[in-house]
Amino acid sequence: MSGIEGKVIALTGASSGIGEATAAYLAERGARMVLGARREDRLNAVVDKITAQGGSAVGIKVDVANREDLKRLVDVAADRFGRLDVLVSNAGTMAVSPFDELRQDDWDAMVATHITGLLNGIGAALPLFRRQRSGQFVNVSSTAAYVVKAPQGVYAATKTAVKVLTEGLRQESGPDLRVSLVSPGLTNTEGVGKGADPETAALMVKAREEIGLPPSAIASAIGYAIEAPDGVDVSEIVVRPTAQT
Ligand code: NDP
């Protein structure tokens, strides 16, 4: 099946920002969305908005660090719609965490969300994709995987892991599966500056508001990777604000 219409697409990190915009973009184009995130109130609001506009979406409370939660996300897609065509692993946390501050909970959260979370998604969806003899992984990395900037060493390392795991998966995926990496640059979402000290947070919010991409720019890049014709693997897309070095 090519295009977006009719596809069953599971997406993590759907409760805000890029995930919310991507859920809306894909639902508008006729995808049946299975959406995961931890904040149920925000997730339900996204589902309600899509449904009110005539789209198809279901929301599941998911912590990607929990293997069983990802299995449930995939099971809901399979039970309700009979298949899963795409898993978009978008959940992420952009903690600003200078090494000297020893915010080790932030380090753990980035490893758990970006690395363990991605692997949990692969572990949940790959057996179904193999049985179907089709499926697509779309993994969200970052330009931080290409250019490391202080104080984001841990974030950059975990997003580099997303890039490397995606390439490794692509090489093992064979002719039936598609594997895509989408790496956003600075995007104007609530996640930018979250948890930082007030001074840093203010600078980051200013930057994201002045030059950040609208989340819809990343949604359409993800849509491009999904709508490619069968047999065409859009392996890697990097989308930056023109003003970003
Ligand atoms: P947001 O903070 O708006 O969105 C992050 C999403 O991830 C939320 O829906 C959040 O939902 C979810 N999430 C975080 N941790 C978990 C978890 N453990 N389990 C399930 N869901 C989780 O930020 P963005 O939209 O900007 O971020 C989306 C992705 O884009 C991330 O991977 C981020 O690293 C990446 N990115 C963003 C850039 C930017 O400048 N904005 C630049 C480069 C990459 P909830 O809290 O409800 O669980």
TrEMBL record:
Q: Which UniProt keywords apply?
A: Oxidoreductase
The protein's matches in Pfam families, at most eight in alphabetical order, are given as:
adh_short (PF00106)
Please tell me which top-level EC class this enzyme sits in: oxidoreductase
Could you tell me which InterPro entries the record lists for this protein?
KR_dom, NAD(P)-bd_dom_sf, Sc_DH/Rdtase_CS, SDR_fam
The GO terms describing molecular function are: oxidoreductase activity
E.C. number, please? Answer: 1.-.-.-
Q: Where is the Ketoreductase domain?
A: 7-187
Q: Which domain of life is it from?
A: Bacteria
**Family membership noted in the UniProt record:** Belongs to the short-chain dehydrogenases/reductases (SDR) family.
Official protein name in the record: SDR family oxidoreductase
Q: What is the lineage of its organism?
A: Bacteria, Bacillati, Actinomycetota, Actinomycetes, Streptosporangiales
